[in-house]
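Hi V.,

Quick status before I head out on leave. The structure for the redesign project is tokenized and pasted below; the design run finished overnight.
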């Protein structure tokens, strides 16, 4: 029997919608609703390239040189983005997760991350996906199973589909960030700048056109329920939205400019993050989990039109 690159495939169905969650990486491979793709996913026989659908833990985004200090001790994790010399998107993207429980429209997966060079702590992760008529909700819980405090950050990496035959250039983007983190040649933050009067002010919406985005945003505008929303719509008004609960203080947007053809700019990566890039090095918004302590964050996807 052939073993698929992402292992077991967990199919969720609700009304006319179908989503597939995978064993390897615990991520979302595909999501279709009303006969169209909501996410720009990947095929059953493919690896999840460009972090497509991945869970990003115990840190999201980039970490300079893979180096950081925690409680006075320096740690060095393997560099996984060699062109920039960064460690990127944590340690769990290609590890197998096990099923904790499963129904026809939901699945909850778990991974026990054991101590290793650069991250010498025991971290239990659970990620649950639930498909409803309104969309998908994704809940991630982390628990410190060790006897000393550990650093933690988390994110997810879905790509919203531009639509059949479209690129993100053809789409209108509404995103909630009032502040953008400027970056250096290694895509690491160098400072924060308000988006007012810049092409990156996406709060009222704009046609993406030739705008290139690979930036982290913060100071996210939220609705009465505390949710921040990103909306991507095509010329026909159809599209998708991502919502983030208050646990996600940062949001990375990426127009896919370095994605190899033919997938370049066919999807918009919308990455909820609990902390900014290079957070383990700077300490900004890093969650301190004491022994036995847990933290939970929730985000979701909603079809539009």
């Amino acid at each position: 029997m052939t073993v698929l690159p992402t292992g077991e495939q967990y199919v969720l169905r609700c009304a006319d919608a179908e989503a597939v969650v995978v064993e390897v990486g615990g991520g979302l491979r595909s999501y279709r609703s009303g006969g169209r793709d909501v996410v720009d996913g990947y095929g059953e026989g493919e690896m999840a390239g460009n972090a497509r659908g991945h869970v990003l833990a115990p840190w999201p985004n980039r970490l300079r040189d893979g180096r950081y200090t925690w409680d006075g001790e320096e740690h060095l994790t393997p560099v996984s983005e060699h062109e920039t010399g960064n460690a990127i998107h944590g340690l769990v993207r290609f590890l197998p997760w096990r099923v904790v429980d499963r129904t026809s429209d939901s699945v909850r997966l778990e991974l026990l991350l054991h101590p290793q060079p650069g991250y010498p702590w025991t971290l239990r992760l659970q990620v649950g996906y639930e498909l409803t008529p309104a969309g998908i909700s994704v809940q991630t819980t982390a628990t410190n199973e060790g006897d000393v405090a550990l650093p933690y950050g988390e994110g997810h990496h879905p790509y919203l589909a531009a639509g059949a035959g479209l690129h993100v250039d053809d789409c209108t983007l509404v995103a909630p960030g009032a502040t953008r983190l400027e970056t250096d040649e290694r895509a690491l933050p160098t400072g924060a700048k308000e988006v007012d009067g810049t092409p990156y002010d996406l709060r009222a919406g704009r046609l993406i056109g030739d705008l290139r985005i690979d930036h982290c945003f913060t100071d996210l505008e939220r609705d009465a329920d505390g949710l921040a929303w990103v909306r991507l719509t095509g010329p026909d008004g159809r599209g998708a939205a991502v919502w983030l609960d208050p646990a996600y203080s940062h949001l990375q947007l990426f127009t896919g400019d370095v994605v190899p053809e033919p997938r370049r700019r066919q999807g918009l990566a919308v990455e909820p993050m609990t902390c900014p890039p290079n957070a383990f090095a700077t300490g900004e918004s890093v969650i301190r989990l004491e022994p036995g302590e847990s933290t939970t964050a929730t985000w979701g996807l909603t079809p539009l039109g």
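Above is the designed sequence. Residues 40 and 228 are 21 Å apart (CA to CA).

G. will cover questions while I'm gone.

Best,
W.
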